[in-house]
Amino acid sequence: MNNQKKSTKLDLTVFERNGKIEFVHIIRRNKFKATKALNGFLIGLKNEASGSKETSRIIVKFISNQKISKEEEKHLKTQVYDIFKILGIGVPFMLIPGSTLLIPFIIKVAEKKGIDLIPSNFKKNKELKNSKMN
After folding, report:
1. Where are the transmembrane segments (predicted)?
2. Confidence of residue 1 (pLDDT cuts 50, 70, 90)
């Protein structure tokens, strides 16, 4: 098997033909940054899905046995908090057209006010990136 990652060529000719040269330059300049952000998001999403799967297993165990360990209880609480965070950010922004552009600003303002809006699986990914940089 080939272990090298295949480089995908970004076809922006449609934009170039329509006179959006400036947009094409911005995309090409920020290609690495956007790819890195998208990969981080997909990893966080994958972790969130596996965490939700584990949570459903714990819920079934709790319903059937009525007993779960402290570690499982902590995991369950974390997942429930994460679901509320996602719903708290996602639902209003999905209902109001165009408001998804405000999400990054609201997250920054919330961080400055000491409010944590980012689900834990996405923070783990962010912390892992920061530790690799240092």
Report:
1. 83-107
2. very low
